[in-house]
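Weekly structure sync, notes
Attendees: PL (lead), two postdocs, one rotation student
Agenda item 3: pending single-chain targets
PL asked that the sequence for the first pending target be pasted directly into the notes so everyone works from the same version. It is reproduced below exactly as submitted, 409 residues in total.
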Amino acid sequence: MGQRAAFSDLRPSNSLRTNEMSIDGLCILEEGSVWQESRPDFFSSPVHRQFDRSTVETPDVRPEQAQQALFSSFISLSAGLGPVKSRNEDDILLKPYLFRDIGTVGGSLSLLGHGNSFRVYVLSEDDSVDGNARYVFKRTIPPVRQQQDSDSFFRSRAKALMLELRTLAHARIRQHENIVKLLGLAWETDQFDRTRKWPVFIMERATRGTLVDLLQPESHYNLPTRLHLMLDITLGLEALHKCGIVQGDIKFENVLVFDNPDDGRPFVAKLADFGGAMFDVLAPSTLPSGTRPWNAPEWRDQLDMEELLLTDVYSLGFALWRILANGKHPFLEPGAPRSEAWLERADILKGNDETMREHFAKLSEELETEAERLLAGIVIAFTVKRVPADRNLEEVKKLLAGTMLRQSR
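Predicted structure, written out during the meeting:
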């Protein structure tokens, strides 16, 4: 089995080794480090601070001020978008859509999936390459008119757009192997307000869908493949945290999987969906979103920045264990109905570390080897802990890296 590139230092890129400050000032790199220091000045510059969390959440901000701030921030961020290394970079089919209104360019779009903030569309088979489009269009416009307050709805959609863009437009994030790539931007006219246009994100398409799609009950991947997936999402989360970004909703549905025929491992996993991300946290705040049962037990509390970052580590623990267990759900039996009762049982388990440890130890008995069972126990010990300070992303990374090296010998 081929070893990971730059495996010894676990950097996103071997080129990021010198004393270098990025032009946009988000991260500073020191010799032998990975994004050693997070710099707040990029996300705290005047134009970006115009559209922070308070702009979209404080009632006394006038709608026209919010729209002006959105426009200036959007232009500032999108102006820096340049080519990104990807198989789509030279795709001639992508060029007609860049910075164009997708409603006037032509070509049909088919709904591929949707989340809380976005709907994802793909080119129809006739417009794709060999019937397999290599990029998708991520849109915020709903298919039906919303009955809620228009200003509130505007703020909600604008917030999701800007959080996604602020995460994915930065050069360091865009080039990271384990974060989904933003390939470009397009536009579309709001079908319920013809005077308003909304951005459309053009993203690389996950050839294997999400981890939910990949790890089905009948699937069984060898341990090296699962370790690669586990390390992928750990490195992606580390990259976000080094840049002061809270992902806010780590779960299988938010991890995309891509075929990877080039370097000896079959798949690459990438974090996606940043509509609930958090930046610029200067005072204790609550998470804007999350998904039970994967969220941390303190997710409703007022948390400082370090505590917010550690909620991601808690959720990561569940995802890592599920990958190791080939997708098994730790709280719900296959075919069992989803209900509030099983969510409440999961919440009770979260209240006691020893009870949670015993729960996962029993589930892990089904893993094939003693090495897998031991790995599962240590992953849970470093992540799924009631006290945030007891969680440790760095130790998880070292654990996975060391296990993978031993497997490759």
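Discussion points:
- The chain has two domains: 80-204, 211-408.
- Residues 8 and 401 are 8 Å apart (CA to CA).
Action: rotation student to compare against the earlier draft before next sync.
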